[in-house]
Amino acid sequence: MAEQTLSVVEARRKFADVLGRVAYGREEIIIARAGQPMAVLINVEEHRRLKALDQKQRATAQAARFKGNSTIQTVEALFDGEVLRPEASLELETNARVHIVIEAIKVPETRPPSFLRKARSLNLQGPPDWSARFEDYLYAQESEADD
Fold first, then answer.
1. Which of 39, 82, 92, 124 fits as disulfide partner to 96, beta carbons 3.0 to 4.6 Å?
2. 121 or 41, which is more confident?
3. Which residues 6+ apart lie within 8 Å of 40 measured at CB?
4. Terminus-to-terminus CA distance in the chain, angstroms?
5. How far is CA 18 from CA 32, 40, 120, in A?
């Protein structure tokens, strides 16, 4: 890949051209301010390749760090504003030092089931006219229809 350095002013002035050269010409453009490199423009495929390589290298380094000298556990915990509270017991000795990686989990909002859905799920059995004679059944009264 070709590499070129442009000043911030020049890159701003030729932005459409610079963008085309990076996206389609697969050039790498270094943006500099006062002669000091500030950023690099690369195309999306190169960015994805570098990101995947970085993730693979991190995973390899983490596996090497933990290999043979510890147990890895995955535990979900709730942060109450002050303390992380694990949802399961931890298999650790007292005062054991640990390495913690925190990944926030989005919990889907769940609405409580509707009354009707809950009532249907209970599979309640009753006489066919229970809704019409609700108060009679509720207060154990006999109606004139029973006679």
1. 92
2. 41
3. 28, 29, 30, 31
4. 96
5. 14, 12, 63
